[in-house]
Design a protein that fits this description.
It is built from four helices and 13 strands. With about 220 residues, the protein is α+β, with helices and mostly antiparallel strands. The strands form two sheets. Strands 8-7-6-5-4-3-13-12-11-10-9 form an eleven-stranded antiparallel β-sheet. Strands 1-2 form a two-stranded antiparallel sheet. The protein is elongated and about 105 Å long.
């Protein structure tokens, strides 16, 4: 009869052991000891070759630039002019230029550090009135600049060397499948192909933008 309580104690002990804390491994399995979890293979580290990293680092010498932005895959849409200096980007809007005194805004000045966008109307000829047109949504109007396209590129391969106009470029293909045609002197793309989209930065001028060019300035002055 004394064996029955002993057996009960053994059963209770076994039940306690079986109900001990279980650990959930990264792959979803459970174990009593986390050290026995299956090893998870490490993701390969993304790296740039030394020559591509050096090429892209040349963009640090770009303090300002101006260009005409064109979606080549949308041939009926005209280019818009863009001026960049430090954290400021002044960007034209696609607005009516054949009807007098109609537009309420025709440019936006972005502060890329503060992520703000201030609209203005500059043309005396085509604006209802010139001056401050109020704040607008940053993400709705902002167009990626050449510097934005290379920001954060962690993996790319060199596909070819070519020329766009009279400028030498390298064609780089990123992990995401974008093709960047990067100027070999300034390290920024002159063209970006993503799927069926082609973004071109035409008539690029580097390091000549003055501070007044990224500020509000009335134009088409009526005399």
């Amino acid at each position: 009869m004394k064996r029955i309580p002993l057996l009960i104690l053994l059963l209770v002990a076994l039940l306690a052991v079986s109900c001990a804390t279980k650990y959930v491994c990264p792959d979803g399995s459970t174990v009593a000891d986390p050290a026995s979890c299956p090893k998870v293979p490490e993701e390969p580290t993304e790296t740039l070759s030394a020559e591509i990293e050096e090429l892209l680092s040349r963009s640090k010498n770009v303090e300002s630039m101006s260009y005409d932005y064109k979606r080549v895959d949308q041939p009926l849409v005209r280019p818009v002019s863009v001026w960049i200096k430090d954290v400021y980007v002044k960007q034209e809007l696609l607005v009516q230029t054949d009807i007098l005194n109609k537009n309420e805004m025709d440019v936006i000045i972005f502060n890329t550090a503060a992520k703000t966008a201030q609209a203005y109307c500059e043309s005396q000829r085509y604006c209802v009135k010139t001056g401050d047109a109020g704040m607008v949504d940053y993400g709705t109007y902002y167009l990626k600049t050449p510097l934005d396209w290379i920001d954060g590129v962690a993996s790319a391969e060199k596909i070819s060397e070519a020329k766009i106009g009279d400028r030498a470029v390298w064609q780089l293909k990123t992990k995401d499948g974008a093709n960047l045609w990067v100027d070999t002197y300034y390290g920024v793309p002159l063209r970006v192909d993503v799927g069926n989209e082609r973004h071109e930065f035409q008539n690029l001028i580097f390091n000549r933008v003055q501070e007044k060019e990224v500020q509000f300035e009335e134009r088409d002055l009526v005399k």
